[in-house]
């Protein structure tokens, strides 16, 4: 039983209370986002003054809508909640069709004022009376790229061709600002990321982490689950729920409130209890939860789990076309206690020497090769192919700083041929860092459009790899054998 959560991600028609024709208002952005993503069913804007919103017929009240409405998005001023809930109650008495409310409006219990608490209690009371589930209040909304639902008021500038594309990442955020930042940064990547499902939960007046985690656990489209967590009233129950999921799919968590002041700030933000960070940290390690420290590491790790093969162990070869970045990457690998650079087979070393430019440095130190800036496209691809075929290598960190005389389009084409068309991405985990910036944007874009994630810098790739190895070892510990079995 999902208690109407299906209607959260695939609702039969959506009404937006507080819809607006003013592009500077959230009520406009929500309606426009639904249009832009290509929501396939009906949108009903609610506005007491306008006849049309964004070219769509609007209504004075929910009660006036004749069609079925399963989701209601609230983006009106919080003070109007009593009139809105009266309208909802009247509709439920006659049609009984609303399954879920997404309350994006703020100024509820998070303010800790008597007025805010009273408004939130009224929202909960009427909703519970009719079995309606609530997301929020004080949230930015919900996205489902499988069913083309976007009730957020975030303008990500996601290209039109990327809207509605589904990935395997489902994400839950306790912070609207963090959620919005992830959406915007994801849209700004070489191949913009479309989250599978994305939920900003705000005050968690009803639907919370537990509800969504259990839903994502059984969601076939969800490959990896990400969380931004400030605190939860029942930390043990949350940990137990996550522990049931990590045996099936990875859970990546950015848990804030490590410091005393950070915990205090978390408590004052959404009214949540941060809980003991030491307890959370210990439980995360015990149950294979991947804890990350930064938003960038969160994004990199989620995308790595979504697009790259899970490594069998921490044996990683560093293949670099540039000395400095290669050394930088080697240091980053050395700083991870679950990674090591293996001694490859003698035949692999000989093949590398035959393939790479004469000035290359092969296995000095072991597990490292610098094929130098003289390397052409063939040198890059053939060297990578040889290393992937080595039985002592579980994954490869591939780094190139593309010089002006190396054709980027050909490099991308041949990398795609090797990894995608010849299937080498399924043999070993390949973490690709193509440096740097806008100069290599199109090269990275071409590769990422084939579902192969690339990293802006080697250290980002190393952190993502270490996190995947950590999860791989956890699966081996609880299941035995290979993590990929």
Compact overview of the structure:
This protein is α/β, with parallel strands linked by helices and 485 residues long.
Structural overview:
- This protein is α/β, with parallel strands linked by helices and 485 residues long.
- It folds into 2 domains: 5-304, 3-Layer(aba) Sandwich (Rossmann fold); 309-479, 3-Layer(aba) Sandwich (Rossmann fold), CATH 3.40.50.261.
- The protein has 16 helices and 20 strands.
- The strands form 4 sheets. The protein has a 7-stranded mixed sheet with strand order 9-8-11-10-12-13-14, with helices on both faces. A 6-stranded mixed sheet has the order 16-17-15-18-19-20, with helices on both faces. It has a 5-stranded parallel sheet with strand order 2-1-5-6-7, with helices on both faces.
- Strand 19 (429-435), helix 15 (441-448) and strand 20 form a beta-alpha-beta unit.
- Helix 3 runs parallel beside helix 4, helix 10 crosses helix 16 and helix 13 runs parallel beside helix 14 (408-421).
- It is elongated, with a radius of gyration of 25 Å.
- The relative contact order is 0.08.
């Amino acid at each position: 039983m999902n208690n109407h959560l299906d209607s959260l991600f695939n609702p039969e028609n959506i009404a937006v209370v507080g819809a607006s024709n003013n592009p500077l208002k959230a009520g406009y952005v929500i309606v426009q986002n639904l249009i832009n993503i290509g929501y396939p069913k009906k949108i009903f804007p609610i506005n007491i003054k306008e006849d049309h919103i964004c070219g769509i017929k609007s209504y004075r009240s929910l009660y006036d809508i004749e069609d079925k409405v399963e989701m209601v998005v609230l983006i009106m001023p919080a003070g109007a909640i009593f009139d809105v809930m009266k309208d909802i109650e009247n509709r439920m008495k006659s049609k009984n069709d609303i399954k879920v409310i997404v309350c994006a409006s703020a100024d509820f219990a998070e303010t800790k004022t008597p007025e805010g608490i009273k408004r939130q209690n009224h929202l909960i009371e009427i909703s519970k009376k009719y079995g309606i589930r609530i997301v929020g209040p004080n949230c930015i909304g919900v996205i489902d790229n499988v069913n083309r639902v976007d009730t957020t008021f975030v303008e990500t500038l996601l290209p039109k061709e990327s809207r509605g594309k589904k990935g395997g990442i489902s994400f839950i955020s306790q912070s609207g600002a963090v959620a919005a930042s992830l959406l915007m940064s994801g849209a700004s990547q070489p191949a913009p990321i479309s989250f599978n499902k994305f939920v900003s939960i705000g005050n968690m007046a009803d639907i919370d982490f537990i509800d969504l985690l259990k839903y994502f656990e059984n969601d076939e489209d969800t490959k990896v689950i990400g969380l931004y967590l400030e605190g939860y009233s029942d930390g043990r129950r949350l940990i137990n729920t996550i522990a049931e999921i990590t045996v099936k799919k990875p859970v990546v968590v950015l848990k804030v409130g490590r410091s005393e002041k950070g915990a205090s700030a978390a408590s004052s933000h959404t009214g949540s209890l941060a809980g003991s960070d030491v307890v959370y940290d210990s439980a995360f390690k015990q149950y294979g939860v991947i804890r990350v420290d930064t938003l960038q590491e969160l994004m990199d790790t989620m995308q790595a789990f979504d697009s790259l093969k899970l490594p069998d162990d921490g044996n990683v070869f560093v293949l670099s076309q540039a000395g400095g970045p290669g050394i930088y990457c080697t240091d980053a690998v050395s700083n991870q206690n679950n990674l090591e650079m293996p001694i490859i087979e003698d035949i692999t070393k000989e093949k590398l020497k035959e393939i790479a430019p004469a000035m290359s440095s092969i296995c000095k130190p072991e597990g490292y090769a610098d094929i130098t800036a003289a390397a052409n496209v063939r040198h890059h691809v053939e060297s990578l192919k040889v290393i992937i075929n080595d039985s002592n290598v579980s994954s490869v960190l591939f780094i190139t700083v593309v010089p002006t005389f190396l054709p980027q389009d050909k490099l991308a084409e041949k990398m795609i041929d090797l990894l995608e068309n010849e299937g080498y991405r399924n043999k070993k985990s390949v973490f690709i860092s193509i440096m740097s910036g806008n100069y290599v944007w199109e090269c990275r874009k071409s590769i990422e459009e084939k579902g192969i994630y690339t990293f802006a810098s080697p250290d980002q790739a190393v952190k993502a790899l270490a996190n995947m190895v950590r999860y791989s070892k956890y699966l081996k510990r609880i299941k035995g054998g290979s993590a990929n079995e």
